[in-house]
Protein backbone atom coordinates (compact mmCIF):
# COMPACT_ATOMS: atom_id res chain seq x y z
CA UNK A 1 0.00 0.00 0.00
CA UNK A 2 1.03 3.59 -0.43
CA UNK A 3 2.93 5.67 2.04
CA UNK A 4 1.65 9.05 3.10
CA UNK A 5 3.47 12.11 4.26
CA UNK A 6 4.31 11.43 7.91
CA UNK A 7 3.33 14.95 9.01
CA UNK A 8 -0.37 15.07 8.23
CA UNK A 9 -1.55 18.04 10.26
CA UNK A 10 1.46 20.26 10.76
CA UNK A 11 1.61 22.98 13.37
CA UNK A 12 -0.04 26.14 12.13
CA UNK A 13 0.19 29.77 13.17
CA UNK A 14 -2.54 31.46 11.20
CA UNK A 15 -2.83 34.42 13.57
CA UNK A 16 -6.57 34.60 13.23
CA UNK A 17 -8.25 37.35 15.21
CA UNK A 18 -11.04 34.97 16.17
CA UNK A 19 -8.73 32.41 17.74
CA UNK A 20 -8.86 28.62 17.91
CA UNK A 21 -11.67 26.14 18.40
CA UNK A 22 -12.88 23.36 16.19
CA UNK A 23 -12.10 23.75 12.53
CA UNK A 24 -12.65 21.82 9.34
CA UNK A 25 -10.15 19.65 7.50
CA UNK A 26 -8.74 21.85 4.72
CA UNK A 27 -7.97 20.15 1.42
CA UNK A 28 -6.30 22.10 -1.40
CA UNK A 29 -6.88 21.18 -5.05
CA UNK A 30 -4.32 22.60 -7.48
CA UNK A 31 -3.22 21.90 -11.03
CA UNK A 32 -2.96 23.32 -14.54
CA UNK A 33 -5.79 25.16 -16.31
CA UNK A 34 -8.45 22.82 -17.66
CA UNK A 35 -7.31 19.66 -15.91
CA UNK A 36 -10.66 19.21 -14.17
CA UNK A 37 -10.21 20.79 -10.74
CA UNK A 38 -13.71 22.29 -10.61
CA UNK A 39 -15.31 19.10 -11.92
CA UNK A 40 -13.39 17.15 -9.26
CA UNK A 41 -14.60 19.53 -6.54
CA UNK A 42 -18.19 19.12 -7.78
CA UNK A 43 -17.89 15.33 -7.83
CA UNK A 44 -16.37 15.27 -4.34
CA UNK A 45 -19.20 17.42 -3.03
CA UNK A 46 -21.77 15.03 -4.48
CA UNK A 47 -19.93 12.00 -3.08
CA UNK A 48 -19.43 13.38 0.43
CA UNK A 49 -22.15 15.94 1.12
CA UNK A 50 -24.54 13.47 2.76
CA UNK A 51 -21.83 12.36 5.20
CA UNK A 52 -20.06 15.59 6.20
CA UNK A 53 -20.66 19.36 6.18
CA UNK A 54 -18.63 20.79 3.27
CA UNK A 55 -17.60 24.31 2.26
CA UNK A 56 -15.76 25.36 -0.92
CA UNK A 57 -13.40 28.29 -1.59
CA UNK A 58 -12.57 28.90 -5.26
CA UNK A 59 -9.69 31.06 -6.48
CA UNK A 60 -10.84 32.29 -9.86
CA UNK A 61 -8.20 34.17 -11.79
CA UNK A 62 -10.42 36.87 -13.24
CA UNK A 63 -14.05 35.82 -12.94
CA UNK A 64 -16.42 34.04 -10.64
CA UNK A 65 -16.85 31.28 -13.22
CA UNK A 66 -15.73 28.40 -11.02
CA UNK A 67 -17.87 29.49 -8.11
CA UNK A 68 -20.79 30.10 -10.48
CA UNK A 69 -20.33 26.65 -12.05
CA UNK A 70 -20.56 25.03 -8.63
CA UNK A 71 -23.61 27.16 -7.81
CA UNK A 72 -25.31 26.22 -11.10
CA UNK A 73 -24.58 22.56 -10.50
CA UNK A 74 -26.16 23.06 -7.07
CA UNK A 75 -23.58 20.78 -5.47
CA UNK A 76 -23.86 22.72 -2.22
CA UNK A 77 -26.07 25.42 -0.74
CA UNK A 78 -24.95 28.87 -2.01
CA UNK A 79 -23.77 30.01 1.42
CA UNK A 80 -21.28 27.12 1.45
CA UNK A 81 -19.40 28.41 -1.63
CA UNK A 82 -17.20 31.50 -1.71
CA UNK A 83 -14.70 32.98 -4.18
CA UNK A 84 -11.35 34.73 -3.67
CA UNK A 85 -9.91 37.13 -6.26
CA UNK A 86 -6.21 36.62 -6.80
CA UNK A 87 -4.80 39.69 -8.57
CA UNK A 88 -3.28 37.94 -11.61
CA UNK A 89 -1.16 35.66 -9.45
CA UNK A 90 -3.07 32.53 -8.41
CA UNK A 91 0.00 30.85 -6.92
CA UNK A 92 0.71 33.88 -4.69
CA UNK A 93 -2.75 33.60 -3.14
CA UNK A 94 -2.27 29.95 -2.14
CA UNK A 95 1.42 29.99 -1.25
CA UNK A 96 3.23 33.29 -0.66
CA UNK A 97 0.41 35.45 0.72
CA UNK A 98 -2.39 33.25 1.97
CA UNK A 99 -4.20 35.94 3.97
CA UNK A 100 -7.21 36.37 1.67
CA UNK A 101 -7.77 32.62 1.49
CA UNK A 102 -7.42 32.17 5.25
CA UNK A 103 -10.00 34.87 5.72
CA UNK A 104 -12.37 33.23 3.24
CA UNK A 105 -12.08 29.89 5.05
CA UNK A 106 -12.62 31.46 8.46
CA UNK A 107 -15.61 33.50 7.26
CA UNK A 108 -17.12 30.40 5.67
CA UNK A 109 -16.74 28.42 8.89
CA UNK A 110 -18.14 31.28 10.92
CA UNK A 111 -21.13 31.96 8.67
CA UNK A 112 -22.02 28.48 7.39
CA UNK A 113 -20.37 26.31 10.02
CA UNK A 114 -19.62 24.20 11.79
CA UNK A 115 -18.04 22.49 8.78
CA UNK A 116 -16.13 19.20 8.64
CA UNK A 117 -14.38 19.75 5.32
CA UNK A 118 -13.30 22.80 3.31
CA UNK A 119 -12.15 22.26 -0.27
CA UNK A 120 -9.90 25.06 -1.58
CA UNK A 121 -9.59 25.13 -5.35
CA UNK A 122 -6.65 27.11 -6.73
CA UNK A 123 -6.85 29.10 -9.92
CA UNK A 124 -5.43 27.13 -12.84
CA UNK A 125 -1.68 27.58 -12.74
CA UNK A 126 1.55 25.88 -13.66
CA UNK A 127 3.31 22.76 -12.45
CA UNK A 128 5.18 24.56 -9.68
CA UNK A 129 2.12 25.82 -7.79
CA UNK A 130 1.60 24.31 -4.35
CA UNK A 131 -0.48 25.27 -1.33
CA UNK A 132 1.14 26.65 1.81
CA UNK A 133 1.02 24.41 4.86
CA UNK A 134 -0.31 27.47 6.66
CA UNK A 135 -3.43 27.27 4.51
CA UNK A 136 -4.28 23.58 3.95
CA UNK A 137 -3.81 20.31 5.81
CA UNK A 138 -3.38 18.20 2.68
CA UNK A 139 -3.29 18.88 -1.05
CA UNK A 140 -4.43 17.13 -4.19
CA UNK A 141 -2.81 17.92 -7.54
CA UNK A 142 -5.01 17.38 -10.58
CA UNK A 143 -3.46 16.85 -14.03
CA UNK A 144 -4.99 15.27 -17.12
CA UNK A 145 -3.82 12.89 -19.80
CA UNK A 146 -4.52 15.39 -22.59
CA UNK A 147 -2.02 17.83 -21.10
CA UNK A 148 0.73 15.42 -22.15
CA UNK A 149 1.67 12.02 -20.77
CA UNK A 150 5.16 13.33 -19.97
CA UNK A 151 3.93 15.56 -17.11
CA UNK A 152 4.56 12.94 -14.37
CA UNK A 153 8.07 12.38 -15.73
CA UNK A 154 8.80 16.11 -15.77
CA UNK A 155 7.91 16.32 -12.10
CA UNK A 156 7.79 19.68 -10.32
CA UNK A 157 6.45 20.38 -6.84
CA UNK A 158 2.79 19.67 -7.66
CA UNK A 159 3.52 16.25 -9.11
CA UNK A 160 6.20 15.19 -6.67
CA UNK A 161 5.01 16.53 -3.32
CA UNK A 162 1.19 16.61 -3.42
CA UNK A 163 -0.42 14.24 -0.94
CA UNK A 164 -2.58 12.77 -3.70
CA UNK A 165 -1.98 13.00 -7.46
CA UNK A 166 -5.10 12.73 -9.62
CA UNK A 167 -4.64 11.97 -13.33
CA UNK A 168 -7.95 12.93 -14.91
CA UNK A 169 -9.60 12.38 -18.31
CA UNK A 170 -8.30 8.82 -18.77
CA UNK A 171 -11.15 8.31 -21.26
CA UNK A 172 -9.25 10.62 -23.64
CA UNK A 173 -6.00 8.64 -23.47
CA UNK A 174 -6.50 6.71 -26.69
CA UNK A 175 -7.54 9.86 -28.58
CA UNK A 176 -4.49 11.88 -27.61
CA UNK A 177 -2.01 9.01 -27.70
CA UNK A 178 -1.30 9.09 -23.96
CA UNK A 179 0.34 6.05 -22.43
CA UNK A 180 -1.37 5.48 -19.07
CA UNK A 181 1.05 2.75 -17.99
CA UNK A 182 3.95 5.06 -18.59
CA UNK A 183 2.21 7.85 -16.62
CA UNK A 184 1.64 5.47 -13.71
CA UNK A 185 5.25 4.27 -13.74
CA UNK A 186 6.64 7.81 -13.97
CA UNK A 187 4.33 9.05 -11.19
CA UNK A 188 5.37 6.20 -8.91
CA UNK A 189 9.04 6.96 -9.59
CA UNK A 190 8.62 10.70 -8.91
CA UNK A 191 6.43 10.42 -5.82
CA UNK A 192 8.34 8.08 -3.55
CA UNK A 193 5.30 6.02 -2.62
CA UNK A 194 2.73 8.84 -2.35
CA UNK A 195 -0.57 7.75 -3.93
CA UNK A 196 -1.79 8.43 -7.49
CA UNK A 197 -5.30 7.76 -8.82
CA UNK A 198 -6.63 7.78 -12.38
CA UNK A 199 -10.05 9.31 -12.98
CA UNK A 200 -12.50 10.33 -15.63
CA UNK A 201 -14.50 12.74 -13.56
CA UNK A 202 -16.73 14.11 -16.33
CA UNK A 203 -17.72 10.50 -17.12
CA UNK A 204 -18.47 9.83 -13.48
CA UNK A 205 -15.56 7.44 -13.10
CA UNK A 206 -12.88 7.23 -10.47
CA UNK A 207 -14.00 9.83 -7.94
CA UNK A 208 -14.64 7.15 -5.31
CA UNK A 209 -10.93 6.49 -4.53
CA UNK A 210 -10.45 10.26 -4.11
CA UNK A 211 -13.48 10.51 -1.83
CA UNK A 212 -12.24 7.49 0.15
CA UNK A 213 -8.84 9.14 0.56
CA UNK A 214 -10.52 12.26 2.00
CA UNK A 215 -12.71 10.11 4.29
CA UNK A 216 -9.56 8.55 5.68
CA UNK A 217 -8.07 12.00 6.38
CA UNK A 218 -11.28 13.06 8.09
CA UNK A 219 -11.22 9.94 10.25
CA UNK A 220 -7.61 10.58 11.21
CA UNK A 221 -8.39 14.16 12.13
CA UNK A 222 -11.38 13.04 14.20
CA UNK A 223 -9.14 10.50 15.95
CA UNK A 224 -6.93 13.38 17.06
CA UNK A 225 -4.03 12.97 14.69
CA UNK A 226 -3.59 16.74 14.87
CA UNK B 1 16.30 53.35 8.52
CA UNK B 2 15.63 50.05 10.23
CA UNK B 3 15.25 46.57 8.84
CA UNK B 4 11.77 46.40 10.37
CA UNK B 5 10.68 49.24 8.07
CA UNK B 6 12.03 47.40 5.03
CA UNK B 7 10.02 44.34 6.04
CA UNK B 8 6.83 46.32 6.67
CA UNK B 9 7.12 48.12 3.33
CA UNK B 10 8.16 45.04 1.36
CA UNK B 11 5.65 44.22 -1.36
CA UNK B 12 6.14 40.55 -0.46
CA UNK B 13 5.06 41.05 3.14
CA UNK B 14 2.07 38.66 3.20
CA UNK B 15 -0.67 41.20 3.88
CA UNK B 16 -2.90 40.84 0.84
CA UNK B 17 -1.67 43.79 -1.23
CA UNK B 18 -0.77 41.71 -4.27
CA UNK B 19 -4.43 41.28 -5.21
CA UNK B 20 -5.08 45.05 -5.37
CA UNK B 21 -4.12 47.57 -8.06
CA UNK B 22 -4.69 50.83 -6.18
CA UNK B 23 -7.13 51.92 -8.84
CA UNK B 24 -4.75 51.19 -11.71
CA UNK B 25 -6.94 48.49 -13.25
CA UNK B 26 -9.77 50.96 -13.82
CA UNK B 27 -7.38 53.68 -15.01
CA UNK B 28 -5.79 51.30 -17.52
CA UNK B 29 -9.16 50.12 -18.81
CA UNK B 30 -10.41 53.68 -19.20
CA UNK B 31 -7.26 54.86 -20.95
CA UNK B 32 -5.83 57.07 -18.23
CA UNK B 33 -2.74 54.91 -17.75
CA UNK B 34 -1.17 53.90 -21.06
CA UNK B 35 2.59 54.07 -20.46
CA UNK B 36 5.27 54.99 -17.93
CA UNK B 37 4.56 58.74 -18.19
CA UNK B 38 0.84 58.40 -17.49
CA UNK B 39 1.57 55.87 -14.75
CA UNK B 40 3.79 58.47 -13.08
CA UNK B 41 1.00 61.08 -13.24
CA UNK B 42 -1.53 58.61 -11.82
CA UNK B 43 0.83 57.73 -8.96
CA UNK B 44 1.54 61.40 -8.27
CA UNK B 45 -2.18 62.12 -7.97
CA UNK B 46 -2.76 59.20 -5.65
CA UNK B 47 0.28 60.07 -3.53
CA UNK B 48 -0.80 63.66 -2.85
CA UNK B 49 -4.44 62.78 -2.08
CA UNK B 50 -5.35 59.42 -0.54
CA UNK B 51 -1.64 58.67 -0.03
CA UNK B 52 -1.20 61.76 2.14
CA UNK B 53 -4.36 60.99 4.13
CA UNK B 54 -3.39 57.36 4.71
CA UNK B 55 0.17 58.31 5.68
CA UNK B 56 -1.10 60.81 8.25
CA UNK B 57 -3.51 58.26 9.74
CA UNK B 58 -0.69 55.72 9.99
CA UNK B 59 1.72 58.21 11.55
CA UNK B 60 -0.90 59.25 14.09
CA UNK B 61 -1.50 55.62 15.06
CA UNK B 62 2.24 55.07 15.52
CA UNK B 63 2.47 58.27 17.56
CA UNK B 64 -0.08 56.86 20.00
CA UNK B 65 -3.44 58.35 18.96
CA UNK B 66 -6.46 56.17 19.79
CA UNK B 67 -6.70 53.60 16.96
CA UNK B 68 -10.48 53.36 17.16
CA UNK B 69 -10.90 57.13 16.90
CA UNK B 70 -8.50 57.05 13.94
CA UNK B 71 -10.58 54.27 12.42
CA UNK B 72 -13.57 56.61 12.50
CA UNK B 73 -11.47 59.42 11.02
CA UNK B 74 -10.50 57.06 8.19
CA UNK B 75 -14.16 56.24 7.53
CA UNK B 76 -14.96 59.96 7.32
CA UNK B 77 -12.14 60.42 4.78
CA UNK B 78 -13.16 57.48 2.57
CA UNK B 79 -16.40 58.42 0.77
CA UNK B 80 -16.51 55.31 -1.49
CA UNK B 81 -18.19 52.36 0.26
CA UNK B 82 -16.16 50.00 -1.94
CA UNK B 83 -12.86 51.58 -0.89
CA UNK B 84 -13.95 51.59 2.75
CA UNK B 85 -14.55 47.84 2.54
CA UNK B 86 -11.26 47.31 0.70
CA UNK B 87 -9.34 49.26 3.35
CA UNK B 88 -10.91 47.25 6.17
CA UNK B 89 -10.26 43.97 4.39
CA UNK B 90 -6.61 44.89 3.83
CA UNK B 91 -6.41 46.03 7.43
CA UNK B 92 -7.62 42.65 8.61
CA UNK B 93 -5.06 40.90 6.41
CA UNK B 94 -2.25 43.19 7.56
CA UNK B 95 -3.21 42.60 11.19
CA UNK B 96 -2.79 38.86 10.74
CA UNK B 97 0.70 39.25 9.28
CA UNK B 98 1.70 41.91 11.82
CA UNK B 99 0.58 39.79 14.77
CA UNK B 100 2.83 37.01 13.52
CA UNK B 101 5.76 39.36 12.87
CA UNK B 102 5.54 41.69 15.88
CA UNK B 103 3.28 40.17 18.57
CA UNK B 104 1.90 42.91 20.79
CA UNK B 105 -1.11 43.53 23.07
CA UNK B 106 -1.98 46.67 21.05
CA UNK B 107 -2.43 44.60 17.88
CA UNK B 108 -4.46 41.99 19.78
CA UNK B 109 -6.71 44.72 21.21
CA UNK B 110 -7.27 46.25 17.77
CA UNK B 111 -8.19 42.84 16.36
CA UNK B 112 -10.62 42.20 19.19
CA UNK B 113 -12.25 45.63 18.78
CA UNK B 114 -12.50 45.36 14.97
CA UNK B 115 -12.72 41.62 14.13
CA UNK B 116 -13.86 42.41 10.56
CA UNK B 117 -10.88 44.68 10.11
CA UNK B 118 -9.80 48.21 11.00
CA UNK B 119 -8.71 50.56 8.21
CA UNK B 120 -5.39 49.47 6.74
CA UNK B 121 -3.37 52.64 7.54
CA UNK B 122 -4.49 52.48 11.17
CA UNK B 123 -3.38 48.85 11.44
CA UNK B 124 -0.12 49.75 9.74
CA UNK B 125 0.51 52.53 12.25
CA UNK B 126 -0.15 50.27 15.23
CA UNK B 127 2.02 47.57 13.67
CA UNK B 128 4.83 50.07 13.12
CA UNK B 129 4.67 51.04 16.78
CA UNK B 130 4.79 47.34 17.76
CA UNK B 131 7.84 46.96 15.52
CA UNK B 132 9.61 49.83 17.28
CA UNK B 133 9.32 52.18 14.30
CA UNK B 134 8.69 55.94 14.33
CA UNK B 135 5.63 57.86 13.06
CA UNK B 136 7.76 59.09 10.13
CA UNK B 137 8.62 55.46 9.29
CA UNK B 138 4.93 54.55 9.23
CA UNK B 139 4.18 57.56 7.04
CA UNK B 140 6.97 56.58 4.63
CA UNK B 141 5.79 52.99 4.33
CA UNK B 142 2.21 54.14 3.69
CA UNK B 143 3.11 56.90 1.21
CA UNK B 144 5.37 54.50 -0.68
CA UNK B 145 2.60 51.92 -0.85
CA UNK B 146 0.32 54.55 -2.41
CA UNK B 147 2.58 54.58 -5.47
CA UNK B 148 4.11 51.09 -5.47
CA UNK B 149 0.77 49.30 -5.60
CA UNK B 150 -0.43 50.86 -8.91
CA UNK B 151 3.09 50.66 -10.36
CA UNK B 152 3.35 46.91 -9.65
CA UNK B 153 -0.15 46.28 -10.96
CA UNK B 154 0.54 48.21 -14.17
CA UNK B 155 3.48 45.94 -14.95
CA UNK B 156 0.98 43.08 -15.01
CA UNK B 157 -1.91 44.96 -16.65
CA UNK B 158 -0.03 46.66 -19.50
CA UNK B 159 2.98 44.35 -19.69
CA UNK B 160 4.85 47.59 -18.96
CA UNK B 161 8.62 47.16 -18.90
CA UNK B 162 9.38 46.49 -15.21
CA UNK B 163 12.51 48.66 -15.42
CA UNK B 164 10.39 51.61 -16.51
CA UNK B 165 8.05 51.00 -13.60
CA UNK B 166 10.99 50.92 -11.17
CA UNK B 167 12.32 54.15 -12.68
CA UNK B 168 8.91 55.82 -12.18
CA UNK B 169 9.02 54.88 -8.49
CA UNK B 170 12.61 56.09 -8.14
CA UNK B 171 11.79 59.48 -9.69
CA UNK B 172 8.81 59.83 -7.35
CA UNK B 173 11.03 59.08 -4.34
CA UNK B 174 11.68 62.69 -3.22
CA UNK B 175 7.94 63.44 -3.45
CA UNK B 176 7.13 60.34 -1.42
CA UNK B 177 9.57 61.54 1.24
CA UNK B 178 8.04 65.03 1.25
CA UNK B 179 4.49 63.65 1.58
CA UNK B 180 5.62 61.40 4.44
CA UNK B 181 7.13 64.38 6.25
CA UNK B 182 3.98 66.45 5.78
CA UNK B 183 1.89 63.53 7.00
CA UNK B 184 4.03 63.13 10.10
CA UNK B 185 3.75 66.87 10.87
CA UNK B 186 -0.04 66.65 10.53
CA UNK B 187 -0.12 63.62 12.81
CA UNK B 188 1.83 65.53 15.45
CA UNK B 189 -0.64 68.42 15.20
CA UNK B 190 -3.52 65.97 15.51
CA UNK B 191 -2.15 64.70 18.82
CA UNK B 192 -2.44 68.17 20.36
CA UNK B 193 -5.31 69.69 18.36
CA UNK B 194 -7.50 66.66 17.73
CA UNK B 195 -8.00 64.36 14.75
CA UNK B 196 -9.69 67.07 12.67
CA UNK B 197 -6.16 68.37 12.08
CA UNK B 198 -5.48 65.32 9.91
CA UNK B 199 -5.56 66.00 6.15
CA UNK B 200 -8.72 65.15 4.20
CA UNK B 201 -7.53 65.38 0.59
CA UNK B 202 -9.55 63.29 -1.80
CA UNK B 203 -9.38 62.04 -5.39
CA UNK B 204 -12.95 61.76 -6.71
CA UNK B 205 -11.90 59.86 -9.82
CA UNK B 206 -10.31 57.14 -7.65
CA UNK B 207 -13.57 56.86 -5.69
CA UNK B 208 -15.72 56.75 -8.81
CA UNK B 209 -13.36 54.32 -10.52
CA UNK B 210 -13.38 51.98 -7.52
CA UNK B 211 -17.18 51.92 -7.48
CA UNK B 212 -17.27 51.13 -11.20
CA UNK B 213 -14.54 48.50 -10.91
CA UNK B 214 -16.45 46.61 -8.23
CA UNK B 215 -19.34 46.15 -10.68
CA UNK B 216 -17.21 44.65 -13.47
CA UNK B 217 -18.03 40.98 -14.11
CA UNK B 218 -14.42 40.20 -15.05
CA UNK B 219 -11.29 41.68 -13.47
CA UNK B 220 -7.78 40.71 -12.48
CA UNK B 221 -7.53 42.69 -9.24
CA UNK B 222 -9.84 42.96 -6.26
CA UNK B 223 -9.64 46.75 -6.37
From TrEMBL, chain A:
GO cellular component, one term: cytoplasm
Domain CobW/HypB/UreG nucleotide-binding intervals: 27-196
Residues engaged in binding GTP: 31-38
GO molecular function: GTP binding; GTPase activity; nickel cation binding
Region: Disordered, residue numbers: 1-23
Superkingdom per UniProt: Bacteria
Keyword Glycoprotein assigned: no
Subunit structure: Homodimer. UreD, UreF and UreG form a complex that acts as a GTP-hydrolysis-dependent molecular chaperone, activating the urease apoprotein by helping to assemble the nickel containing metallocenter of UreC. The UreE protein probably delivers the nickel.
Protein name (record): Urease accessory protein UreG
Source species: Actinacidiphila rubida
Biological classification of the source: Bacteria, Bacillati, Actinomycetota, Actinomycetes, Kitasatosporales
From TrEMBL, chain B:
Signal peptide range: none
The keyword Ribonucleoprotein belongs to this UniProt entry's keyword annotation: no
Subcellular location: Cytoplasm
Location, primary (coarse class): cytoplasm
A GO molecular-function descriptor: nickel cation binding
Keywords: Chaperone, Cytoplasm, Nickel insertion
Domain of life: Bacteria
GO cellular component, as recorded: cytoplasm
Pfam family, one: UreF
HAMAP family per record: UreF
Protein family (similarity comment): Belongs to the UreF family.
Subunit note: UreD, UreF and UreG form a complex that acts as a GTP-hydrolysis-dependent molecular chaperone, activating the urease apoprotein by helping to assemble the nickel containing metallocenter of UreC. The UreE protein probably delivers the nickel.
Function (record text): Required for maturation of urease via the functional incorporation of the urease nickel metallocenter.
PANTHER family noted in UniProt: UREASE ACCESSORY PROTEIN F (PTHR33620:SF1)
Protein name per the record: Urease accessory protein UreF
Native organism: Actinacidiphila rubida
Amino acid sequence: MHQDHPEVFPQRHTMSASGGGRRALRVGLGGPVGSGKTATVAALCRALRDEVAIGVVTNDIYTREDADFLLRQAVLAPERITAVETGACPHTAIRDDISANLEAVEDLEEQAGPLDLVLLESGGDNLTATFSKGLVDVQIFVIDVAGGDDIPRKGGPGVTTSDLLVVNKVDLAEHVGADLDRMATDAAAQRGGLPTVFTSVARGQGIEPVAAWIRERLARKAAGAA
Amino acid sequence: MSAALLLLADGRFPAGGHAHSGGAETAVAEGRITDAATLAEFCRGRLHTTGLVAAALAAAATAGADPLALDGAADARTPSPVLRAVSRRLGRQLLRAARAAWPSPALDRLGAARPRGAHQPVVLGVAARAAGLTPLDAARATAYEAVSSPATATVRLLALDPFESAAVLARLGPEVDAVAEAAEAAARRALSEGLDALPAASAPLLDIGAERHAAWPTRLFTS
